[in-house]
Amino acid sequence: MIDLYFAPTPNGWKITIMLEECQLPYKLIPINIGSGEQFEESFLSLSPNGRMPVIVDHQPMGGGEAVSIFESGSILMYLAEKSGQFMPKDKRGFYQVNQWLFWQMANLGPMGGQASHFINYAAEGNDYSKTRYLNEYDRLLAVMNYQLEKTQYLANDNYSIADMASFPWLLPYKRYGFDLNNFPYLKRWYDELKVRPALRRGVDIGKDWRPDGGPDQSTRDVLFNQTSELYKKS
Ligand SMILES: N[C@@H](CCC(=O)N[C@@H](CS)C(=O)NCC(=O)O)C(=O)O
Known about the structure:
Glutathione S-transferase Yfyf (Class Pi), Chain A, domain 2, single chain, about 50% helix, binds glutathione, 9 helices, Glutaredoxin, 4-stranded mixed β-sheet, alpha+beta
């Protein structure tokens, strides 16, 4: 059995999508990032960065003690290897997927996350930052559109963990003010993926756990004022 430490956000949904797609049995362990559970010692010992998702595999490949993994891209690679699915075994295909997975982790995720922050949570008067991240998100949609004119899926013509990593970061596109009709190849990909039953099950997990009206002040204090103080031993 695989334990998944999870909160309903795009980075969490990457893993529920993959677990639903590859049908490995798993148990959800909700992490309340709004109340600061990610900084409890028991969680930091699994995820030193204080971020979810994390998995703990109690029947790891090769046997032995349970294995824990943080960082969603690394978790996706582990699950692909364990299930033998959604990551090509030949070297060419492997690195086609690998480069798009890294692209997602280094670009679409962080820039989408910052865009979300400045759209949803920042006080008025942060127009420079908001524009900066929305322009990057816009550019990254164009990168995907450029690629998807040539290939059916992000890495090549096979659905892979690179698609699963990117899809949840497209979910907020309307809220960010974008129209996918301006990115026709990306729209074709998005429309195809969003009706996959396993992907749908994955992104529906935990949707109703999110507070109506967004985070309250104590949640904002936990999420948006983190410094090295969090790591000082008392
Ligand atoms: N690069 C990390 C990012 C994970 C991440 O940022 N997780 C967020 C939720 S989407 C989190 O745990 N936030 C808690 C916090 O900000 O304190 C990954 O892909 O796993």
